[in-house]
Amino acid sequence: MRTILVPTDFSEPSKNAAHYALNMAIGLKADLHLCNAFTVPAESPVMSGVTWSLYEYPDLKEEINKDLKKFANTLEKKETVLAADAPTLFHPTISYSCEREDLVSFIHTTAIATDAILIVMGMTGGGKLNQLLFGSNSLKMIDKTQHPLLIIPHHHRYQAIRKIAFATDLSTEDKKTAQALSKLAEYFDAELLISHVIDFNEKLDNDAYEHKKDLFIQDIPGKTSYLPIEEKGIDSGLDVLRNKDLDLLVMGHQHKVFFDRLTEGSHSIRQARKLHLPLMVIPQGVPLLF
């Protein structure tokens, strides 16, 4: 059974991401798997509200599994409430695992073991990505993930997905992604906006641009429309998309400039504060299994 994977450290951002992922799992008819990767440094850390030392490792793992079970039960109760209003909804199975391992490695191995179609992670308020997604681990996840990665802002609560924007350079690789995203949109009866920032050369040769655009959008099924953005740079383009009443923004991994800016100093804070909607990162060259 295909699965949505949710790494959690029991923080509020990661819990919020898990609640979002539960709704995605229902819509995509997928199961949900919670995972926690932990370390036990020589100096006692504080994890899940409990201080632990190195020699207490077995107890630590047992305690984390208890926390995972408790959180899984909370999500199951939430799913029961949702099902009461709509009995025909899909009922995902919720499982969990934890291991003393590097976070990125554990996510990768768990994603393979659970046939994950999507990884969902949280983002704190104020523009700072939480410890699951910021710093070296965030860069590794964005750079090394072999599965779609969905980033949920801390204060963003799930709402019906009606409009999905895919930021693209109209490449052949992106067209394959767009076709897969049309299947994702179909699950939620959503509109897929193909969004492209028109560059200077395309403005000079409008006929070539129109031909390229027409080739890209043909054969993409479902409720699909094209949204050209005549702005300078990604910042301005994001501002335009941000005002389009979107429910989800999707970008390919090759748009590295955007992610560099998310992880650079004060500019990252300004940029992340603008991003009040979920962002899905699609790894390049990996088939999407929506």
UniProtKB/TrEMBL annotation:
Domain UspA: 1-153
Entry-linked InterPro entries: Rossmann-like_a/b/a_fold, Universal_stress_UspA, UspA
One Pfam family of this chain: Usp
Entry-linked SUPFAM superfamilies: Adenine nucleotide alpha hydrolases-like (SSF52402)
Family note: Belongs to the universal stress protein A family.
Descriptive protein name: UspA domain-containing protein
Organism the protein comes from: Chryseobacterium salivictor
